[in-house]
Amino acid sequence: MSDTREVVQGTLDLLVLASLRAGRMHGWGISQRIRQQSREAVLVTTGSLYPALHRLEQRRLIRAEWRPSENNRRARYYELTAKGYRALGEELEWWERFVAGVAGVTGAAGAATGSA
Amino acid sequence: MEHGNRSVWRSLVAIVTRRKVDRDLEEELRDHLERDVAWRVRAGVDPAEARRLAMADLGGVVRTREEVRDVHGITRLEDLARDVRFAFRRLRRDPRHALLATLTLGIGIGAATAVFSAVDGVLLKPLPFRSPDELVMVWHTKPREGLERLDLAPGTFLDLQERARDVVRLAASNPWGLNFTSPGITEHLEAWQLTEGFLELVGVAPHLGRAFEPRDFQTGAAPVVLLDHGFWQRRFGGDAGIIGRQLRLDGNAVTVIGVMPPGFALPVATNLWTPWIWSDDQRNDRFASYIRVYGRLQPGATLEGARVTMATIAVQLAAEHPRSNTGVGLAVERLEDYVVGSRRPLLWTLLGAAAILVLVTLANVGALQLTRLGRQRREAAVRAALGASGSQLVRPLVAEALVLAALGGALGLALGWAGVRALLALGPQDLPRLSEIQVDWRAAMAAAVLCLLATVALAMPSVLRLARERASAGRTVAGSRHASRTRRVAVSAQLALGLLLLIGTTLLVRSFLLVLSADRGYRTEGVLSFTTWVYEEYPDAPRRLAFVTTVFERLGALPGVRAVSMGSSLPLAEGITGEEADIIPSGTAQVPGEERTARGAVVWPTYFETLGMRLLRGRALERTDDGRGAMVVVVNEAFVRRFYPGEDPIGRTVSVGLMGRAIPRTIVGVVGDTRHVRLDAPPEPAVYIPWPQMPLASLTFVLRTDGDPASLAAAVTQAMFEIDPRVGVARVATLEGLVDQRLRERRFMLTLLGAFAVAAVAIAVVGVFGVMSQAVADRTREIGVRMALGASPGVVLAEFLAEAGRTTAVGVAAGLGIAVFATGLLTRFLYGVARLDAVSVAVAVLLVSALAALAAALPSWRAARINPARVLQEP
User: Fold this and answer.
1) d(CA B837, CA B842)
2) Cβ–Cβ gap B57/A75 under 8 Å
3) Are B140 and B330 in contact (CB under 8 A)?
4) Is B41 exposed, middle or buried (0-12, 13-18, 19+ CB in 10 A)?
5) Which residues contact A41 (CB under 8 A, 6 or more apart)?
6) Hey, is the C-beta of A36 within 8 angstroms of any chain B C-beta?
7) How far lies B756's CA from each of B443, B478, B853, in Å?
């Protein structure tokens, strides 16, 4: 697990928003999705995930709702709002520029979008 | 494991309150945990192990909860309580700091609270009347002679009452005196007569009993009286049964109908109020100015409107009654301005001084806290490394500041309460509204505001520094330099403000000493005096002379009495310091607009000798200077300077108009100047007329005694009662007591400013000690290295002393700079010294510099004694 890193600062919101593109999800689902999609390279701790979820909810980028869940309890489900979709677009744009920038500096061959 | 889960959940539940955010989060996290466990079990992990792993992953539930709360902007009382408990623990580990900060804050807040209470009671609180801002006073003025605030003539009052009715309702009071006879003693009581509707106009009801009613003002009505609250307490022990009882006043039985509320003192503090039943003479009197007129602006009327109306009426009256009213104006001012106006500068100056002391204490505790934070840097760094958020790092600091401010505030309130006691004991007795001064909720509010300020002062340096250190992580050396510079600036500021207060104090001390040592021109030790009025009891000159002679004989025979004399005036005795006399030296004519007056007194021939006044030229008055002899007068030096500069006045004739009658008199002698009206004003021209040539009914007797004159007071009043029980004795006083009262305001201001200055300088000097000790501690290693490389202790000592010298010099320079402007506010309280008096300033500067040097010497000496070997061996 030495390859697992905590999320880079500023990217947590992006990861959460991107995960919710797949549809309505509860907190645990989001953390599982990030873990799987990143092939276990990115670790989101509970301690940072839930504050982030509540922060995004406050900014009205996501909306939360208590719904009955499969195990006969209720779970808090999150989904993207229209504003959230727009914010996700901006975040992605920023991310691509960021990655390109880092690649430019490091000269790494594996950079996703090549050199800028 | 079920059991273990329960306890985990219970502890989760315990920390989560009923708040919705917390409840929701709890459920959300529980859901998360259950899903995680289930997922791990599905992957083949043993259920117990799965739960353990899931719990570990869930991590700090408490922290998550707090951060979510932060997102929702929830700060909770229980967090605050925890922070406060933590702050107490931290402060207990550093009791020296806690004690210093609490004491410093306590002194500052206490001083400010006490002075604020005084300012509040006298200046800020509305007067205890109904709608006090509508109340005004109406005065005569004589603009040509530069005279303001003259009492009105009764006839003029009646005109005004009629003509100004649309703008202002008026009522008047008439100074009165009554002889109050009780078994064994007849006292002359000062009292005021009030016109019908006076009490309704100001809107004050009696504390007990009833107010005056229209029937009390009818001619021939049964006489009634209202008592002053203090008089009632003093003379009747606050007995409520006094209502309906009869007092023997001027030989009549007068019924007490009520007691006025405490603090009611219109026009001045007095003993009794009676209904004013007008005589025909009073109605038509437009000449004699003696009544005090109050008004209430009619709804919608303004002060300016009232002024215009009065000015118009003054012009009309001058046209209708040219003999009495030519050159006489009418002025209107707010009652409040009159009551407290003259004391405003004193109180504002003291409030300013208290504010300066507060600034010094805030600068001091700020610097203290900065020093403390330096020692705590490691703790903060550890907490930051452990993941404490910004608000988590700042909150304990704020809580600590809050705790210190609260402790300081509590101490300050206690000191403020004691301070108010001291102010009441020390303050000028004629300070208006003295009885309204108290530490009440407003003073407590002021203290609370100061506590908040203190909290900010305490927390600011820490917070700013934290912010800076977070911004420049790792560059802590720069941070430390910055902090020590900030501390030095804070200490310089304290020295500057302390010096400012000290300069003010030395100026006041010099003034006080000069007033004290100024030649008064009369003897104050061993003089007892009292006043009687015998207008009705002894209506003509021969009978008055017989009375006076009897008094001389009887009092002169009392053991301990060396001499007895009499005059119409007494130095420093409010209200009887002499009447104004019009002076026309022979051969000149009165020029309109030129003020040629002198203070006039009618005296018994031995008056000068008894009071120890010096005869400079010619002769004193003699028993032969009576109605049968030539009309003579004795003048003082100031009179000669004013009217006969460079000439010999003896034998010259001068017309002296005292109380209406202008009579040519020959100057037979010149006596020394006296500080008659004020101790701190230059003597004015004065004339002394022999009493036998003008036998006034107002007699002030002066006795020169052996030993303490006050101890003779009882024997004197008893002797007077035996001579004639009808004659009331008033104003029994020693001349030393009168001097003391005149010095009271100066002593009051001096004591207060001095106390503030001492406190501020002490705090600043402790600040110098603190900042130098810290500097030495910070540089111990560096000094060790330099000394190992050959620097001598002398060099190190000189270096630290020079550093302290620079800090002091900056403070002194700044203090002097402010003093150049600020001492202007003191000008009116100074006597005989310039506001930048070199001696006073030099004394203050030397004192502050010497104390600062002393405070710096110890740490500097310690630096010079550093043992390089030991320092360098330390890790």
Assistant:
1) 8
2) no
3) yes
4) middle
5) A3, A4, A5
6) no
7) 18, 37, 21
- Which chain B residues touch A71 with a CB distance below 8 Å? 34
Q: Indicate the helix (H) or strand (E) that contains B584.
A: strand B579-585
Tokens read off for B484:
């020590």
Q: Where are the beta strands (DSSP E) in B106-184?
A: 135-142, 147-150, 168-182
Which residues of B fall within a CB distance of 8 Å from A32? 39
- Is residue B155 very low, low, confident or very high in pLDDT (cuts 50, 70, 90)? very high
pLDDT of residue B461: 65
Q: What is the pLDDT of residues B261-311, one digit of tens each?
A: 987 888 888 899 999 999 888 898 888 888 999 999 999 999 999 999 999
Q: Cα separation of B212 and B226, whole Å?
A: 8
**One-letter identity of residue B531:** T
Residues 52 to 111 of B: which have CB under 8 A from any A CB? Answer: 57-60, 63-64, 67-68, 70-72
CA B521 vs. chain centroid, Å, equals 31
Q: Does B23 touch chain A (CB under 8 A)?
A: no
Number of A–B residue contacts, CB under 8 Å: 58
Q: Yes or no: say if B458 and B373 are a contact pair by the CB < 8 Å rule.
A: no
Residues B714-741 pLDDT 10s: 899 999 999 998 888 888 899 998 898 8
**Chain B residue numbers touching A58 (CB-CB < 8 A):** 71-72
What's chain A's Rg over C-alpha atoms? 16
Whether residue B388 lies within 8 A of chain A, CB to CB, comes out as no
Q: Does B36 touch chain A (CB under 8 A)?
A: yes
Q: Is the pLDDT of residue B62 over 90?
A: no
pLDDT averaged over every residue in chain B: 84
Residues of chain A with Cβ-Cβ distance to B29 below 8 Å are 46, 50
pLDDT reported for residue B7:
40
* Strands B527-533 and B698-705, sheet pairing: antiparallel
**Mean pLDDT across B55-63:** 73
Alpha-carbon gap, residue B111 to A45, rounded angstroms: 55
Both structure tokens of B514: 């000069």
Nearest to B321 by CA among B294, B285, B297, B277: B285
Summarize pLDDT for B103-117 with one digit per residue, the tens.
888 888 888 888 888
Which of A28, A54, A58 minimises the CB distance to B32? A28
Query: How is residue B738 written in tokens?
Result: 């009168």
